[in-house]
Amino acid sequence: MPFLGQDWRSPGQSWVKTADGWTRFLDEKSGGYVGDLSSFCKKEDHNKENLFNSLNYDVAAKKRKKDLLNNKAKIQYFHQEKWIYVHKGSTKERHGYCTLGEAFNRLDFSSAILDSRRFNYVVRLLELIAKSQLTSLSGIAQKNYMNILEKVVQKVLEDQQNIRLIRELLQTLYTSLCTLVQRVGKSVLVGNINMWVHRMETILHWQQQLNNIQITRPAFKGTTLTDLPLCLQLNIMQRLSDGRDLVSLGQVAPDLQVLSEDRLLWKKLCQYHFTDRQIRKRLILSDKGQLDWKKMYFKLIRCYPRREQYGDTLQLCRHCHILSWKGTDHPCTANNPETCSTSLSPQDFINLFRF
Questions:
Q1: Which one of 216, 274, 347, 353 has the largest count of C-beta atoms within 10 Å of its C-beta?
Q2: Residues 6 or more apart in contact with residue 19 via CB below 8 angstroms
Q3: Does residue 97 contact residue 137 with C-beta atoms inside 8 Å?
Q4: φ/ψ (deg, to 5) at 39
Q5: For the segment 153-201, what is each residue's pLDDT rounded down to a tens digit?
Q6: For residues 88, 94, 97 and 101, what is the CA-based torsion angle, rounded to 10 degrees?
Q7: Do the Cβ atoms of 250 and 256 come closer than 8 Å?
Q8: Neighbours of 202 (CB within 10 A)
Q9: Which residues, including other chains, have CB under 8 Å from residue 115's CB and lie 6 or more apart?
Q10: Which InterPro entries match (predicted)?
């Protein structure tokens, strides 16, 4: 420091930093000065100009560096972003989207519920969204969700089929909304609170309508299930994938009650839905010392998810990233399009849009 050893506040001295180092100047009151002040001022102006130019250069360089980093970040984000396309019918249009809400809006689920092969798939997807993904949907997607749900309920009321399936869906949605409405101040739902209360009242009304359904017997008299040979009756029961359907069927007639308790029937049902390891962990013996497959089944479904079964599923082409229903061809550019398609369960479909 140039002030080392003396008080810099003493009168008559002025230290200025120049290109050659620190220089001391004396003012007129002190009787003299060291160096040429006018030449120094010129040098100082020159230094200021150089400093200003250097600052401009540094700012421009930093700006270019920042833009370069931003561009790299954008490129990296673009490569990480998931774009899925949906193929509608036989057209060659591809609509890119990267969120669950966009996918839910663009895929035509309204017409899919009219197809019996796709009905269970759509219902399961609605149930999964109601459990955990409802808040991730946009306002338009949430409105579309309720519209599709209304069409599903109306179809069940008209056909009088899949009643229990829709009851469970409505109960799941109502339970989720009860939890979310309490947190509406945190903006977890899109829209006014009164609108969601009205929707919850609508769900309760739908549940009441489903409970009031009276299934009418067909007017014509012909061959019934109990008129078939026992081997055919048992073969039909083996086609049922839900144990609750077996219990309900056994309550129709005494003969069906005997068949619904068949141990081999419940054993095949357990082996269809669960792995051998899961079954070994939940062994239950009857009073006779035999495995009680019926009790094991209902215990297993409380511990593990059942195997999902759908007549038709969404397919994802790994080559061109197109979503389409099974059996719907899309303009794939791969050499072997058949090997590129992958069946998606409803949970797999939701997982596509998790980043």
A1: 274
A2: 43, 47
A3: no
A4: -65, -35
A5: 999 999 888 899 999 999 999 999 888 887 655 556 777 788 888 999 9
A6: -10
A7: yes
A8: 15
A9: 312
A10: F-box-like_dom_sf, FBX25/32
